[in-house]
Amino acid sequence: MNNVKQLNKWANAHTYFTLDLLRIALGVFLFVKGIKFITNIPYLVDLISPIDKIGGGMFLVHYITPAHMIGGIMIAFGLLTRWAIIAQLPILMGAILVNFTGEMQTENLFLALIILAICLFFLVYGSGKHSADHYFKMSQ
Q1: How far apart are CA 121 and CA 22, in angstroms?
Q2: What distance in Å separates the CA atoms of residue 89 and residue 91, rounded to the nearest whole number?
Q3: Angle CA(130)–CA(140)–CA(124) in degrees, nearest 5?
Q4: Which of 13, 16, 30, 78 is the most interior residue, by most CB within 10 Å?
Q5: Residue 2 CB coordination number (10 Å)
Q6: How far apart (Å, rounded) are the C-alpha atoms in residues 113 and 92?
Q7: Residue 117 burial by CB count (10 A; 0-12/13-18/19+): exposed, middle or buried?
Q8: Phi, psi (5° rounding) for residue 70?
Q9: Using an 8 Å Cβ cutoff, are 12 and 131 in contact?
């Protein structure tokens, strides 16, 4: 717990507006991806078909869409950012796994790797100074 507080203090002292814009862009991207999945369920089912042999296909459909939409909003506003990103990690790792077990789609693989790297960065960095988390901590 002490390490997380030290990371937050360091991140707030070394925050940059561009990183906050990157966090907001990540959240908006995930939200839009969730909207895309919810409006086109057959596309999502087709995407996860290579790992559907493991089981839980309908669970994945009902986990991916709300996690992207709710997590995207939370990340964009900087509210419980680390928890929202933790919810995104299994989805992103699954997106990478799908490319290796099914038909390789390099565009999707490249996009999933970039988003995973950004999510891992914000998992360590936190939400930053211009976020709802920082606002609520400062109002106490």
Answers
A1: 11
A2: 5
A3: 45
A4: 30
A5: 6
A6: 8
A7: exposed
A8: -70, -45
A9: no
Q: Are 43 and 60 in contact (CB under 8 A)?
A: no
The token pair at 105 is 């789609």
Q: What is the pLDDT of residue 16?
A: 75
Q: What integer pLDDT is reported at residue 127 of this predicted model?
A: 80
Tell which phi-psi region holds residue 60, choosing left (phi > 0), alpha (psi between -120 and 50) or beta.
alpha
Is residue 94 within 8 Å of 59, Cβ to Cβ? no
Determine contact, residues 93/116, Cβ cutoff 8 Å.
Answer: yes
State the pLDDT at residue 101: 77
Q: Which two tokens stand for residue 128?
A: 């930053």
Q: Which residues of the chain have pLDDT under 50?
A: none
Structure tokens, 114 = 């970039």
Token readout for 39 is: 């409006």
